Structures are given as C-alpha cells and as structure tokens.
Amino acid sequence: MPFQAYQFECARHIRDPKANPRPQGASARHMNIYNELVYNNLEGFLLACFPVLRSLLSERKWAKLVREFFAEHRCHTPFFRQIPDEFVQYLQSERGVRAGDPPFMPELAHYEWIELALSVSNKEAALDRIDPQGDLAGGHPVLNPVLALLQYAYPVQRIGPQYKPRTPPAQPTYLLVFRDAGFSVRFIELNPVSARLVDLLQSHKLSTEKALKKIVRELRHPDTRVVKEGGLEILRDLHAQGAVLGTWVQ
Length: 250
What we know:
- The protein is mainly alpha-helical and 250 residues long.
- It has two domains: 101 residues, Orthogonal Bundle (DNA polymerase, domain 1); 126 residues, Outer Surface Protein A, domain 3 (Alpha-Beta Complex), CATH 3.90.930.50.
- The chain is built from nine helices and six strands; from the N terminus they run ααααααβββββαααβ.
- It has a three-stranded antiparallel sheet. A three-stranded antiparallel sheet has the order 3-4-5.
- The radius of gyration is 23 Å and the shape is elongated.
C-alpha cells in the first residue's frame, strides 16, 4: 500500500475506530495507544473551554459528542487553541438537532467559547484618537475593540446543573462581553434598549445624540427626555466598566 494511502487509512481509523478498520499490518496495541492519545488531547482542549456544557452531560453522552465532532467535522485551522472555535462551528452549522441534545447546547457552547475568543484577541484601540474623558452626551462614543454584543434565545449565563430549560423564554437574552484594561473578560446583561444603543454605536458609529434620537423614533416614546437621560446613564456605566473607552477626538 502506498504510504499516503496508509496515512489516510490511519487517520480515518483514528477519527472513528468503530466505522473504519485498523490499517492492514498496523499493530493493534500501537494504534490503540495512538487513538487514545489523540482523542485525549482533543477532549482536553474541549474540557478547558466548555466546563458547563460538560457538567450537563453524562460521561457517555459527552464522549459520544466529542467522538462525533472528531469523526464528522473537518477543521480549517492547524492551531490547537482554535479547536474550541471549530467545535462551536460544528454545533451551530453542521450537527443539527439530535436526540438527547439539550436544546440550548449550541448557544451555551458559544457563550462559553466567547470568553476564550476575546481573551486571545489581538485587536487594539487607537488610543491617540480617543479622549478617555470626552463628552459622552455630545460626542461619538468609542467602544472597546475587544467586545461582542450577543443575543441568545436562552439565558445562557444562568444555565447549569440546577437550571436546564427545555424551551426558551419569551424574551431573548442580550449580553455585552468585553476585555477590560486588566485583560479580564467581563459579561454584562443588557435590556433590549441598552442592547440597541450599543448596536447603533458599534455597527453605525453614530454620535450619542443621533443614536438616541433613532431609539426614540423606534420606541415611539412620548418623553424624549427620559430616553436620552436613560441612554446617557447606560453609556456612563459602560464607560466606568471599560466597555466604552471615551469619545473620538475631533
């Protein structure tokens, strides 16, 4: 057998030993050792990133999930630290809903993964263009570049062994996740209005005034002053926590 073909047979067997026989001539003992080493390395990276998801599954279901990911997904990166990224992609885009899966599993995995993703981000703010004490009311707020605004059907931040919802609540969950100046990843739960404000500042880079005027129109709120004061209070709080860095220097 050509060496490359032999390598492919080995790889197929390692991915899914039950479905793919051991290559002819390969030592059963050596292949079993290699299978175990590769699987344990893969599982180790997943365990480090998804402790809550692991705690919700039995040992058998967890091992089955890891094996299915290993057998079915084709990773697009050679970097070990990006294995959790690939796992999230597998759950969200490839796996589909299967019997025995918690209905919130893809969202919970994404929630657990985002902490790793932001902790290793190399994005940096253009500090020379930012006034940390700028006028939030009259200027263009600058969001932390290492930040994600997330919307989930399930309240993923509450899910654990004591809370495993079967159906999503009526209202979605909004979370703002960012890395602060001390390189700690922080999570803030937002209401729909504060989430919309962050979305407008992030995606459209509007001034505070224009963003709040847009929200007033969308809400059809009878008291513009209440919305504007509430929006400014939100921005001041996000600034104090490090999600807003200041305002752009004009």
